[in-house]
């Protein structure tokens, strides 16, 4: 018999052990991510764990987030690309989801944003929904050695990495001031992109909770941070949720050295998959990630409505069409954001970022 309960502190270790062994897991599925949302942003989690004969057979992370309009929603998960159910089979997954929908009603919450993704063995399969929406995670299957990966790159990419190494750039990993140095680059990059940054507390808490499952890499020129990235691990899987570089130093190829350093660390940690994160098919970020050899894995984000629990599922295509319909507003707000002084963008970001689920 399968028993489904809410995650408690006593089950954290069993939860993480299951996540790290599941082929479709992400670092966001680890208990450290829920702890970070709770400690940094005071969000509530109602994570579900399924057991059979005292063995974990499935998990479902759920975070309760309040939007800027003060409407609460379930998210699996916020601030990341994929955080849906992991289970031994589809039957167990459906039991967990059904239990989640019961909790949706119990908490008097209407909507649940469920960020699912194709199975890892479906990588590079161009499904109909994928072609229509173009929203994917870019995954690079890693070889056993850094030399093998480097030799598979194009001559242009290898030259860009070599050039970066000749430009008096240094690489630091998990140094004492690494989070502050990362944040220096990150906030400036987010301002240029027209997007509110996460708080410094978010990243400090993330570093503390992920312990040995996180790397913070900083590229410097004359001791000044000019590119930086955060790398999270889950078993053999590695994700890069945040990476940034200062545009005025693009000619030094600091960003190329950053990603090469992150890839080296992933291979040294015996990872088999390197997740470059979400992209839109054919756009600049997609092409940047593809040049490293990354392949698309289709995203399948859905929204469920507790008031119409059977017929309310919104397909991936419909979901991203809804986002696209508001894109003009987003573009306008982004342009205005770039005009604000840096300290204002940081101050406002600290206040509003927790309410933005993407």
UniProtKB/TrEMBL annotation:
It comes from the Bacteria. GO terms for molecular function: acyltransferase activity. Its EC number is 2.3.1.-. The keyword Transmembrane helix applies. The chain crosses the membrane at residues 328-348. InterPro entries: Acyl_CoA_acyltransferase, BioF2-like_GNAT_dom, PG_Glycine_Bridge_Synth. Residues 153-289 form the BioF2-like acetyltransferase domain. Keywords: Acyltransferase, Membrane, Transferase, Transmembrane, Transmembrane helix. This is GNAT family N-acetyltransferase. The lineage of its organism: Bacteria, Pseudomonadati, Pseudomonadota, Gammaproteobacteria, Alteromonadales.
